[in-house]
Amino acid sequence: ALLRAANALLQQRRYHAALAVIKGFRNGAVYGAKIRAPHALVMTFLFKSGSLREKLKSVAQATYAHSRNLAYFVFTYKGLLAAQSRLQGKRIPFHSFLAACVGGWLVFGDNNPINSQIIMYLLSRILFGLARLAVHKGYIPQPRQDPFPLLAALVWGTVLWLFEYHRETLQPSLQSSMTYLYEDSEVWHDLSDFLIYNKRTDSK
Length: 204
Hints:
flat, 8 helices
C-alpha cells in the first residue's frame, strides 16, 4: 500500500518540479561518485605516497566531496529554475544562466582541488561549445579546413612551455603527470628502473 501511494504521488504533475529537484539531488550524488571514485583511485595509487589506509581515505574523501558538491549544485540549480519559472509563468534562457551562476557561486566557489578540476573540465568544453555556437550563428565563418590539428599543436605547445618554464601555474595533478612523463623518463640506474619500475627504491 505504501509503495502504491508513493508511485501515485510520483505520477502527479503538480509535484513534478519539486520531485525533479529531489531526483536531481540523487542523480548528482550518484554521478559524482561514479566519476570521481575511479579517477581518484587511479591518481592516488599512481602518484601519492602513504599507507594503503591513507590512500583509501584520500579516495573516499575526494569521492564524497565530488558527489556532495554535484548533488548540492543540481538541487540548487533545479530549485532556482523552478522558482523563476513559477514566478514568471514561463521559462526563459536567462533563468538557466542565473540559476547556474548562483549554484556555481554557492557550491563551487571554494577554491580547492576538487572544484578546480571540475571548473577546468567545464571551461575546456565551454570554449569548444562557444566556438561551435559562433560558427552556427554566423559570427565566425565556417573553417575551410578542420582547425583541430592547429588547436592540438597550440594546446600541447603551450602546456609543455608552461611545464618547463612556469610549472607553478599548472594544477598539481597535471604537474605530477607531466613529471612522470617528461622528467622521470630522464633518470634510470639499471634495467629494473628503465623498463619495470619508474624509480628505483632505496633498497636497491
